[in-house]
Amino acid sequence: MKTTLTLLAFVLALLGLAPGIPGASASGPELTAADVGFTGTGGLVLHGTVLAPRGAGPARPGVVLVTGSGAGVPRDHLRTEAVAFARRGLAVLIYDKRSAGYTRFRRSYSDLAGDVLGAVRALRARPGVDPAKVGVWGLSEGGWVAPLAASRDRGVAFVVVVGGNAMTPLRQQVWNEESALRRAGVRGSLLDRGKVGFARFGADAGLFAEAGFDAPGVLAKVRQPLLGIWGTRDLQSPPHENPPLFAAALRRGGNTHYTFRYFAGADHAAHETPDGGTTRGAALAPGYADLVAAWVRDVTSGRLPNGDLPAPPPEDHPARATPPSAWWESARAQAAAVALFLTAFAGYPLAALVRRIRRRTVAPVSRWARLVPVAGTAAVAGGFVYLVSLAAGSSPDPGPLLAGRPLVWLALQGLAVAAVAAALAVAVAWVRAGTGVPRGERVRLGLLLAATAVFVPWGAYWGLLVP
Question: Positions of the region Disordered (predicted)?
Fold first, then answer.
């Protein structure tokens, strides 16, 4: 009977049907694995796995791993890191990230930080874990969330961030998207104005969740020792700007217990990369896991670092400032301008159609007036669609280039210039016609030219009327 039960347990473990049995999902015979459940923000029950070295011994340090962006990211996304840290003597909790309340346009770092603290409590309660030596590790978005959790619980023993940011998510995202376009060879106003303007518009319109998250303000409240790690080929977070920003924010709060390290050739997650950061390899950067384990053992034993900030790697290009929008560039002002364009540009041909139906045709002041609404509408609508397409994917495709300018963008710029030039021709013709222009036609032309007058600064702001 005992043999039968043992065989049954072995088969269930192979099939993955015994998650509660320590070791059922461990990676290697030297580790144990046990599934746990815990309560996050709002009473949401989350599930995870604790990996730890097999065998008895002194209570060991523990670490909760906090993943990057995305809803419902499964725990196995960080299994490589978890196994590497556990093999070096740490108890590691990985868990399935929440999907409730988390979308592309809506998320709360506060809620995520509450989930992290729930995981910390669960790991503290595990046998063999020293509850006074449990800390947090955060990757990418987790680099905002993990320090926030630590700032709320002084009992968190330490903080590790990988590919973290001490700047707003909006500024980081602009740098990320701009980097991708630069690698594709793009230069000019699409980068300098179009992408930045579209990101700020999205933030103003509430389409960019946590865009203005105050990362420096949170870091100034972190009192625990902090280890920051960046790959020199990080293409998502600027590895040359963030470490000094981290140091400045921590020091402002009186915290000098930090260590920053760079791994040559490693990507955003400190993994090896075969192509300079675009593709993530399966293996961690050599020495990365050893550094984390040794640093955690040191700080949890009372050996605290003192402001260790080596020189950052060379800078490819700086992150652009993304200050709050002025009233004239806010989402409301942009929406009002577009509404004016659509009304004026669509109203001109519609009025002509109504006249034709009523057989009350009026000779146009200038045939160039027909080009203004067509070119203007195409430039406005096409520009918006193109910018949306570039922001929709992780690897934006700008299309064929000419002298660093995407052909699509050049075509949109050509339409914008054509609309303005045609409007100038209409204005000259109107002046020459003088009082001979019928009253109804004057109203129609006046609205068309007024919209074009607004279109000029609008087009310059978005980069459609500058090189």
Answer: 304-325
Q: Which residue reads 């972190």 in tokens? A: 222
In 3D, which of 451, 437, 439, 320 has the Cα closest to residue 377? 451
HSE (CB half, 13 Å, CA atoms) of 422?
Answer: 23
Which pairing describes strands 405-406 and 401-402: parallel, antiparallel, or unpaired? antiparallel
Which tens digit of pLDDT belongs to each residue from 84-121? Answer: 999 999 999 999 999 999 998 899 999 999 999 999 99
Which pLDDT score, from 0 to 100, does residue 15 have? 34
The partner residues of 60 in beta bridges, in order of sequence, read 129
Q: What is the DSSP string of 241-293?
A: THHHHHHHHHHHTT---EEEEEETTB-TTSBB-TTTTSS--SSBPTTHHHHHH
Q: In what order do the strands lie in the sheet with 159-162?
A: 31-39, 45-53, 91-95, 60-66, 129-139, 159-162, 226-231, 258-263
Angle at CA 311, nearest 5°, toward 306 and 315? Answer: 140
CA distance 290 to 310: 19
Q: Which helix (H) or strand (E) holds 133?
A: strand 129-139
Cβ neighbors of 17 (< 8 A, separation 6 or more) are none
* Residues paired with 62 in a beta bridge: 91, 134
Write down the CATH superfamily of domain 25-168+213-300. Alpha/Beta hydrolase fold, catalytic domain (3.40.50.1820)
Q: How far apart are CA 68 and CA 162, in angstroms?
A: 10
Residue 165 to residue 236: CA distance in whole angstroms: 10
- With beta carbons less than 8 A apart as the criterion, state whether 257 and 225 touch: yes
Residues of the chain with pLDDT below 50 are: 1-24
3-state DSSP assignment of residue 420: helix
| Domain coordinates in residue numbering, the chain | 25-168+213-300, 327-462
Structure tokens at 182: 């630069």
pLDDT of the residue at 92: 98
Are 122 and 26 contacting, i.e. CB atoms less than 8 angstroms apart? no
